[in-house]
Each structure stands twice: as C-alpha cells, then as structure tokens.
Amino acid sequence: RGAHKTHSSLPRVHLVPILMAPREAQDGKRKAQDIEGEVNLESILETAKEAALAAGAVVNGVWDQTSDIKDTKSNQCDLVTETDQKCEEIITAMIKAKYPDHAIIGEEAVGAGKYELTAAPTWTVDPIDGTTNFVHRIPATCVLISFCMDKQPVVAVTYDPINDEMYYATKGGGAYLKSRRLDQPKRISVSGSDEVCRSVVGLESGYGRDELTIKKLNGAISGLMNKGVRSLRMGGACGLNITNVASGRWDAFFEEGCWTANAGPKIWDFSGGKLIIEEAGGVMLDLTGSPFDLMGRTVFCAANQKLADEIVQMMKDRAL
pTM of this prediction? Predict the structure, then answer.
C-alpha cells in the first residue's frame, strides 16, 4: 500500500556533490537543500521511504496474527518482538546496500544501552515505535527513520502502516503527509493554539513505575488540568505523538526521562520528529526550556513558543 517508485538512477551520497533541483508540486515533491553540497537529500529520502514501506509491509502482514513478544529491555513494560528485529534487519540492509559507509543507530541493535552520535552521516531507526500498541494490536504504531549530518536530522520519515500515513521532511524542504485519503502529498503545519486552555496535549507514562516517576506524571497531569487543558492524550507511540503535533491534530506533547534512571525516549524516537516539527513550524525544546538535546531522554514539542513557555512554567511549578 502507498508504494513509492524506486529512483535507481539517483546518485549515492558518497560519490559526487550534487545540487538539488525543485521537484514538481503536483507529485507531492519539493525542493530539498543540499548540506554543504555533499548530500542529495532527495536520494536519502527515497531510500528512507522505501525502507519504511518495506518494514510497514511486514507489520501489516502479521497484524492479524498472535503477538510475538520475544524479550524485554529496561523492564517488564519495555517489550521486544520478533517483528521488531525482522523489520530493523530489513531497514538496515536497505540502507547499507546504498550507503555502506554510513553509521546506523538502531533501537534493536542498541537495546537498553547507550549510543554515540557523531558528525558523520548517521541514520536512526526505530522499526516499530509503539511496540506495546503493536503487541496489543492497538492501531497506533509506526516505523521511524531519520538521517543526520553534523549531529542534526536533515531527513525524516514516519510511516504508520496500519493507517497508511507517511509523514516526511527534508531540511529546508517542508514537512508533508502522504495518505490514501489524499490525492497528493499535503504540506502540514502546526496548529495556531497558543494557550493550554485551548489545547490538546499529549504525554506518556513511560516505562518507569517508581515513586518519583509516578509523582512527576501525576504532577504534570494535575498542572495541565488546573490550567483548563482542553484534553489530554496518551498515544503510546512517540513518533506518532510528534506528528500529531506537527499536523495540528494535537497542540503539544512531552515525555520525561533521564539516563540515570534509564527511562524515557531515545534518539530513534524523536530525531526525525524534531525535523518534522520544525519544518511544520513548531518548536522542540527540553522541558526546562533549554535547547533540545538529541542525546537526552526527554522530548517536548509544541505548536509555538508561547504555548511551550506556558507548559515549561507549569512543569516548574507542579507539585511533587
């Protein structure tokens, strides 16, 4: 479903510098910048799309079968399935076939451990974001692929195979949604909501079940409710939560974590989302209001700075 054509004639990243040309809007294609004249972002994007579709086909193929929990990672709530591993192997093989010299940070390969992001060309891969949703067959799961240069994402793909929605972005090229409900890809943008009282805000419980984690979550929910938040959501898939904000369905989303407790989302959960949010006109920050850190374990995005500031202050003031 939603198959994309393979552009086998496009040059590979490691061969020659290439200047990008605009692609026709009627095909849902758009101009993408080169990064220092070294990377053809359209070629990278096509590879990411094809890999996401291939992994998505595997997810769709087993959706009506019994779930296949294989193991856990950080705790009993942090699940791994055979399908996760199979999908990551497919994506990795497709990337390596075209870009053998590129680094890949994959969720299943790294597991619960740490990783390093260098300035070299690096892909991040989450083969099934929202694994708990996948295991319970809740139709909110996605394939996440991003490509980073100089430690920042410049290409992103988020593919929801169950609903056949693909979000994608390139640095400077805008963020788009391709869906079976649309005749052609649609450029997306965040909502105009700039107050909590007029916003739908997403958050997640995460995997931690310790007393401090529970207090922080309850404090955040209480703080938002006291501000008259329009509604709260827990989608269960960080990548889709971020695209919900980027497309204006939600107005903000956050999930807390830290390396000390080995809790919270990781780079493969939000690297591509950072680019999609920013290309859609939104902001991604740390929950303290500081610049976002791809090597951190907390994610926070909002439709605009004013709404972000209100939520940051609310988090500082919450009762623990």
Answer: 0.86
